[in-house]
Structures are given as structure tokens and as C-alpha cells.
Amino acid sequence: MRTALKLTFITIFTAFGAFARDPIGDDVYVLSGDTAPVIAMAAWQDGGTIRSVSSKEMSTAPTNAIQYSLREAPWPTGRVRIMTFGKETGGVLHPIKDETLLYVISGAAEAEVAGKTVKLATGDVVSHPTGALRNAGSASDATILTWTVPSLTGENTPTYVRGVDVEEGGFGSISIKRYKFPGNSVRAVKLARGANTNPNSAKTDSLIYVTGGPMTFHQNGRAFVVNAGDFIREVAGLEHFWNVTADSSFVTTSGLPANLTLIDPDKATD
Predict the structure, then answer these.
(1) Which among 23, 26, 110, 258 is least buried, having the fewest CB atoms inside 10 angstroms?
(2) Is there a single domain that holds both residue 196 and residue 73?
(3) Which domain holds residue 95?
(4) Angle at CA 165, nearest 5°, toward 164 and 171?
(5) What does DSSP assign to residue 3?
(6) What is the pLDDT of residues 127-182, one digit of tens each?
(7) In this structure, are 124 and 12 located in the same domain?
(8) Cis omega (within 30 of 0) on the bond before 214?
(9) Rounded to two decimals, what is the model's pTM?
(10) Contact 250, 217 (CB under 8 A)
């Protein structure tokens, strides 16, 4: 059996650096995509280095820089980013700095995994990518979701998981594609209208990006109507459940709770 780890909120900052924005308050459970600031970005190749700037520094980027945008939810237990690239503004280029997981929502790109260049398609997942996200050939549109979270078990093996190789499971009107890799997992979930869930709680956070809705998320006695583009934090130990009022979907990974917690490595990615 692998050794379980004790990690705290402070560990996330020492391991991955400060978030671009101050963390969201611990009592905030939903960040609307409509209110999350859109951050303008530019990236370019400077010799053997990929450089990038954002917001007020955009004027310093060269005229041939690739431009894109991102929105982020800097939760206390991990950061979630959604990046949008356009063919007309150069396609995909983003230096991978502290991102530990990525999921291709749409389009195509390429990244390095364990020193090898991997072409990524819609529905693919990478754990611990390196280098930069780039165009996979010619410039194209792409939407890519990333997380910055510590491993639940201490294992940080770079892994590429193709979406076409992941079987869809689940039960009843809930289907789940579970992308497994050392230290965590990514789950792509589809919920049919009426697929309401029972009150439940978990030992790890779930850092969720909603890809289809609307549906109603309940946590700690509060209710939130969520739509595509919203960010959710299911907090470890808090009771939560869903009322699914339309065919809906989301993508999520696990984050370590903010308090000192031992994670059972044999059940850490459940």
C-alpha cells in the first residue's frame, strides 16, 4: 500500500506558486462563468522560450503573438482555468507552468508528456504535462480546461489518457467517463433530465466545471442554479446533492481538503 500524505492549504501555494488571483473564500461554493473575469492573454516564441503576458501587459507583446483568453476559479484547494483559443488569433500557445491536469473540451492541441510530444483531441486528458500547449499542426479553435491541484497520494507520474479509450460507465440516467492515472482522476459526467441525486458527502473536494445545464446544486443548506461555464467546489465533508432539470454535464477532479487530512490511497480517486 502506498503511503498517505498530510497536506494543507499552504502546501498548494508552496508547491505550485501563488494563484493569479487571491483564493475564493472558503464559504463560496459556486462562481458564475458570467461574473468570473475574462483575462486577456498573449503568448509567443522567444528563441527556445515561450513567453506570455496578460491584461495590462498586453501592449508589450509582439505583434505576431498568439492571443487567447482565460477565466479561472482560484478555490482554496486548487485552481481551475478554462482557456479559449481562436484560429483567427493564432490558435493554441500557452506555457505550462503550474498546471497539473488538462482536459480538452473541444478542438485539438499538443503538449509534452514525459518528454514526448502528444497530440491531443477532444475528450483527452493529461496528468502533469510539461512544456507548452501548442497547435497540433495548423492554427485552430480550442477550449481547454486545466487544474492546478496536488496529487492525492504523492504520485506525480506524467500520463496521457485518450478519451476514445475510456469506457463510459455510471448507473441509470447518470453516465461517467473516469480517466484514471497515478494520484488522481478526471471524471466527465452526463446527467439526464430528472437524474436527481441523494444527499451525500465526500472525503475530498471536487473542483467542477459545468459544461451543460441548467441544474440546481445544493450544498450546506444552500441552492444554486448552475449553467454551462460555471465553476463549483464540492467541499469535503459538506452534504450536497443535485436536482437535474435539463440534460446536463460537468467535468471534475479531486482536491485535497483544506484542513489536515489523511487520504486513503486505495480510495483516493473515488
Answers:
(1) 26
(2) no
(3) 6-28+37-45+65-161
(4) 90
(5) P
(6) 999 999 999 999 999 999 999 999 998 899 999 999 999 999 988 899 999 999 99
(7) yes
(8) yes
(9) 0.89
(10) no
